[in-house]
């Protein structure tokens, strides 16, 4: 065997004897807290006021939507004030309208025609299209959704449409890192 190999074996045996044979091998260790502080999560809220249904045929409010009888070619608009609460650094959200849970016997002839979100007391409409989503910030808004009824012959007569499930939804938007 070479001298180098013999030396390594002898050194290894010596360390093994020292560790396992009652000897001690002292190692020091220390730690400190990082004192990094604490962090809190943000929150989102959507608080709607009582909404109002109107018809494009008379431009007047419909006092009881459950007693109203819609006709072909008519458009109904649901408008309500909503308070959006966004609490968090870099928190952004979009307000949308959801008609997925509206149930009826219609033959897919009731469509969301437009969705508009206007800052409360302002004139700037943030969106008015079929995309049905608007970026919003913390504050008060007026939101309105227009539903259009295009009848498909007599099969859409005497049908019931439960509009109680039309709702506005506030969704957090993924934050975009600075590039």
TrEMBL record:
InterPro entries: Alt_signal_exp_actinobact (IPR024006)
Name of protein: Alternate-type signal peptide domain-containing protein
């Amino acid at each position: 065997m070479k001298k180098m190999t013999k030396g390594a074996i002898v050194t290894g045996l010596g360390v093994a004897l020292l560790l396992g044979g009652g000897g001690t091998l002292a190692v020091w260790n220390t730690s400190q807290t990082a004192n990094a502080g604490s962090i809190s999560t943000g929150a989102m809220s959507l608080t709607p006021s009582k909404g109002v249904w109107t018809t494009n045929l008379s431009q007047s409010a419909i006092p009881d939507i459950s007693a109203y009888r819609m006709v072909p070619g008519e458009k109904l608009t649901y408008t309500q004030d909503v308070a959006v609460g966004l609490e968090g650094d870099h928190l952004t959200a979009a307000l949308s309208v959801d008609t997925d849970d509206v149930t009826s016997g219609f033959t897919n002839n009731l469509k969301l025609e437009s969705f508009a979100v206007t800052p409360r007391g302002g004139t700037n409409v943030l969106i008015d299209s079929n995309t049905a989503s608007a970026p919003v910030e913390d504050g008060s808004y007026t939101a309105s959704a227009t539903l259009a009824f295009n009848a498909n012959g007599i099969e859409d007569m005497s049908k019931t449409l439960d509009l109680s499930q039309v709702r506005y939804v506030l969704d957090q938007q993924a934050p975009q890192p600075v590039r």
